[in-house]
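re: that chain from earlier
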Amino acid sequence: MHGIFERLGSFGVTTLEELKGFSSRLTTAQRDKRHLASSIPQAPGVYIFRGPKNEPLYVGTSRNLRTRVRNYFTAAETRKRMHEMIAVTHHIDAIVCATILEAQVRELRMINEHKPHYNKRSRFQKMPTWLKTFESVDIREASTRLTKRMNDFSDAELFEKAAVVRNEIHELVRNNSRAHHIHALASLPEIILAKPISTPGLWEFTCIRYGRLAGTALSVPGIDVARTLDSLTMTAEVVVDDGSILPASSHEEVEKLLTYIDDEGTRIVSLKGQWALPILASMTPTFAEVPSLDRYL
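^ sequence. v structure.
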């Protein structure tokens, strides 16, 4: 029995889950290429499956790169598209990131740049859908008109038509709010954020400039937090506002950053410029009232 386990170890089988996966359900490519995951680090970051010409086939992200990549070579991976990808994979690269947010943003940028064949999502971030109008539209007036139209249908018991208008109102309000939030962050020269990590007393710091992730850092025990923040601001990417709607990033990246900012644990350290949203804007974010980091240090 011990001899069997020793032999399985050469195939990268070191856990019960991997043993369960080492079965007839595995493709030949999964068995033969399992070793490609052996050198992947146990850390948050981005992984890239590459083909014989070093071309990116698939880009993904994980809090634990090794565990995630190894899963592709177990019976738990049943997607035919992934089996096809593994068959043509030549090697796997890993990029370790300081934070999971950095990994997620790197993933978005790499997919947008290389458009890997086996990534279905986020491949065309620079091609958002825009609504073109031929006259100025007052959003509140439009919402009022649609609401009246919905009520008229409802009073006439035309409930299916009323539901269609209701959905139109929802999309109008949601997209108006989305536009406000994206524009507000993309117009901000700089904002520094802090978020506690799993190790008590330690923090991860994020620098955002004009809606683009410019840098991240982790606090180090025994090192003054102010020094870490100074280092972050000095080494963060220089981002220039070119006057466009999204001067430095994509709408997907800005929305990823907004989700991070809106997280309950995120704190504002400092910001440059004016960050403002209309008081009566729909879905006003809670992060507008997030307390300063000083209260937690």
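Confidence is low (pLDDT under 50) at residues 130-134, 282-297.
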